[in-house]
Write a structure and sequence with these properties.
Number of helices: 1
Strand order of the largest sheet: 2-3-8-6
Strand content: 35-45%
Mean pLDDT: 83
Distance between the termini: 46 Å
CATH topology: Trefoil (Acidic Fibroblast Growth Factor, subunit A)
Order of helices and strands: HEEEEEEEEEEEEE
Number of strands: 13
Shape: globular
CATH class: Mainly Beta
Number of domains: 1
Helix content: 10-25%
Radius of gyration: 17 Å
Structural class: mainly beta
Largest sheet: 4 strands, antiparallel
Length: about 180
């Protein structure tokens, strides 16, 4: 379908307005607005192995500890293909990083958020895509990584505490669906 110049400009301006509004809303997020993110399949939360510092991202019982509270940070964000990619940062100031590989099953890690704009800055950027509602009518999301195009997944659909959280091709599986837990 073709559009007139005026119609096309209106569509582009409207899309930019939505992107700016989204970025403005997200950039105001902070550790004060952090949430736990639970997996639809296992019901366990995203956590850092050992509960603090740098380390592998795992699923763990939702305990309310700072390594399990995450918020969206727009620092270094990228808009690509109409999607807004943001950092997923926890209350300990660690970001979730994807290993730069095209292979499925690469462990995700928490480490200091990249401030330098170096080569791996895109490995910490994620796009939250709304995929529907869970059985409790909570919004479910799938998180796409900018650098790898992989999604955050519960490896092997594990229901075990300590199960690895990995990057995997984005599929319509509940082990890749996450919902913010109500406080």
């Amino acid at each position: 379908m073709r559009c007139t110049m005026r119609t096309c400009i209106r569509v582009v301006v409207a899309a930019l307005a939505v992107t700016v509004a989204t970025a403005t809303t997200v950039s105001s997020a902070s550790a004060d607005t952090a949430l736990e993110f639970a997996n639809e399949h296992s019901t366990w939360c995203l956590a850092v192995s050992g509960g603090h510092g740098d380390g592998p991202i795992i699923q763990w019982g939702c305990t309310g500890s700072d390594d399990q509270y995450w918020y969206w940070d727009s620092t270094g964000s990228v808009v690509d293909g109409g999607k807004l990619y943001l950092r997923l940062r926890n209350k300990q100031n660690k970001c979730i990083f994807a290993v730069l590989t095209s292979l499925n099953g690469a462990q995700l890690y928490a480490k200091d958020c990249n401030q330098s704009g170096g080569g791996d800055q895109y490995a910490e950027l994620w796009d939250p895509e709304l995929v529907g509602k869970d059985s409790h009518n909570l919004n479910m999301f799938q998180y796409h990584n900018y650098a790898t195009r992989k999604c955050i997944a519960d490896e092997g659909s594990s229901i075990s505490w300590g199960g690895a959280i990995v990057g995997w091709d984005c599929l319509t599986h509940d082990d890749q669906y996450w919902y913010p837990r109500p406080s």
